[in-house]
Specification:
38% helix, alpha/beta, 387 residues
Length: 387
């Protein structure tokens, strides 16, 4: 429950649904597909690089903007994959995960009363961060099953008070990868309203079926008004290391750094050079990562379908959205609270990511970034829902 003493604008943000569902999973030994983190470690090269950094004494404060080899690796990664020219010294800032990068940018750019346009469902930290800044959230709903942009809704979300657009692609929780046409529309509206575009691209390498992740900064005329955010946690299965980054025009990076120094100051010292090692891994690593997760996606989608749920097959991330309506469910929150006892599996209601609860009242998100034997057991248990 929210703490009564907290400031008014933060009172809607109490214990997260993820914590609640994890506790329910532990009580009955359910398979927890609620929280989005892998249950295996990342590549050996990265783990060994972290150990080497610790053993060589890199355990004190790193530079405020991040260690040089990581900033350079980020710049080279953007050139290698997206042909983006990024100055490692003036246009890159290393952060305590992507969540801090988002907070630093929103707090740096938004005055109280400014408006932030985002899509819902949205990653839950977006709403809290916007509230912390005293800004106003304006959303455009992505609707099941295709989660396509509703152009009229998106245009209506913009106004003369729009300061920035917060865009997540590939998109958590829906697994949607925004198309070029959709991104062009976002860019058109951002230019029309002189707004910054802040892109959360942490799932950039987790795309399937030939889908293409297109960074907004790579689109014509957008590099000068886009702040790109990513991290090593999802790509390298090191979510606990909290190594993220942002890049963009130098003046905006400076603004974010001015805020960041009073959030964490610095973080993740010996893990920063290890993530730099990860960013230099060969193309086979990135190809195998996507292929492995695509197979896991297919396994879980088939299990959910066999359990009687309607599934939309995601093009990216490691999440699947399922509609429980065919099971007679009218309230996904209640259904998720009963699922551990019903079938021994945990998911989270998509309403946790939305302002418009009614639009997603029967939708549940499941994570498939788990070992195959865990997913097979989840599939076996889900089949009992249809009995």
């Amino acid at each position: 429950m929210p703490t009564p003493e907290v400031i008014a604008r933060m009172r809607p943000f109490g214990e997260t649904i993820f914590a609640e569902m994890t506790q329910r999973a532990l009580r009955v030994n359910a398979v927890n597909l609620g929280q989005g983190f892998p249950d295996t470690d990342g590549p050996r090269e990265i783990l060994d690089a972290a150990i080497a950094a610790i053993n060589s004494g890199r355990n004190q404060y790193p530079p405020a903007i991040g260690v040089p080899e990581l900033r350079e690796a980020i710049a080279q990664h953007q050139k290698r994959f997206y042909d983006l020219d990024v100055d490692a010294d003036t246009e890159v800032l290393v952060t305590a995960g992507a969540t801090e990068a988002i907070a630093a940018v929103v707090l740096a750019l938004c005055e109280p009363g400014d408006e932030v346009v985002t899509f819902e469902p949205y990653y839950d930290s977006y709403a809290a961060t916007i509230a912390l800044a005293g800004a106003q959230r304006r959303t455009s709903v992505l609707r099941f099953p295709d989660f396509a942009i509703d152009e009229a809704s998106l245009r209506a979300a913009f106004s003369d008070r729009t300061r920035l657009v917060l865009l997540n692609t590939p998109h958590n929780p829906t697994g949607k990868v925004f198309t070029r046409a959709e991104l062009d529309l976002v860019c058109e509206l951002a230019r029309e309203h002189d707004a910054w575009v802040v892109t959360d691209e942490v799932y950039e390498h987790l795309v399937f079926d030939g889908a293409q992740h297109i960074p907004v900064a790579s689109l014509p005329g957008m590099a000068e008004r886009t702040i790109t955010i990513s991290s090593g946690g999802k790509t390298f299965s090191t979510t606990g290391w909290k190594v993220g980054w942002l890049h963009g025009p130098a003046e905006v990076v400076d603004a974010a750094r001015a805020v960041k120094q009073f959030l964490t100051f610095v973080a993740s010292g010996p893990f920063q050079p290890a993530i730099a090692t990860g960013l230099t891994l060969g193309d086979d690593f990135y190809r195998d990562l996507a292929g492995s997760l695509q197979a896991k996606r297919d396994l879980l989608c088939e299990g959910l379908t066999a359990g009687g749920l309607q599934v939309t097959r995601p093009s990216g991330t490691y999440f699947v959205i399922a509609d429980a309506t065919p099971l007679g469910v009218t309230d996904a929150v209640d259904f998720c609270r009963r699922m551990p006892e019903l079938c021994g599996v945990v998911g989270v209601p998509v309403s946790a990511f939305c302002d418009d609860k009614d639009a997603v009242r029967t939708l549940v998100r499941f994570a498939f970034c788990k070992q195959d034997h865990v997913l097979h057991e989840a599939v076996r248990r889900l089949a009992t829902l249809a009995v």
